[in-house]
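Slide 14.
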Amino acid sequence: MDNRLPAAAILALLVLLSGCATMTVESDVATDGTIDRYELNLNTSTTVYGLLNQGAEDEGYDSLAEQLRANVNDSNAENVSVSQSLDGDQATVTLVVTGWNPVDAERLNVTRVDGRVVYEDTTFYDADVAPGGGVDVADFELRYVVNMPGDVQRAEGASSVNGSTAVYEASGRDAFTSTRVYVESDAPTGVLTPGFGVVPAVVAVLLVVVSVAGVAVARRR
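Slide 15: predicted structure.
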């Protein structure tokens, strides 16, 4: 699986199929540069939810939840959980990872430099998005919250900063092409550790699942 694929691919297709999608991310960063808790929520229509589950089954899994769960290495986290819920015509998929110290990856990096913790995520930045067909992406929304271990000293492009929390909010095309999360904070205590990279495994696996679903939709048309 190529984690370098742009997250925008799934987002563009979600908007194409459902007309509206919301992604929220909240990441709690520890002083030593690990992730105490990482939570990603994807909210979309039950139509897309069904396609994602069917795509997971086509890949040999019992469900989308099982596929997402399989993409997180248990040895690098204290706990990993995935849940799915339905409410009317809306569906929610949630990934939660606690005590996470994953291996190096492409898009999200946490490092300790000169007594500060630096958090950077480019999953939703500089992506190549070309939905075509007059697709309206105005209804897509992204909210990304980073809780740092100390007071935020720098938060490039953040919508708001309050103490140790930086919030990034965007909608439409900008949400998945121009949202670069970069936050620096004090590191009050803790032992220096080497920097490492992390990327939301959910994005990579959903890219595969949605690609399969997209092909199925195209064939039906």
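Speaker note: The mean pLDDT is 75.
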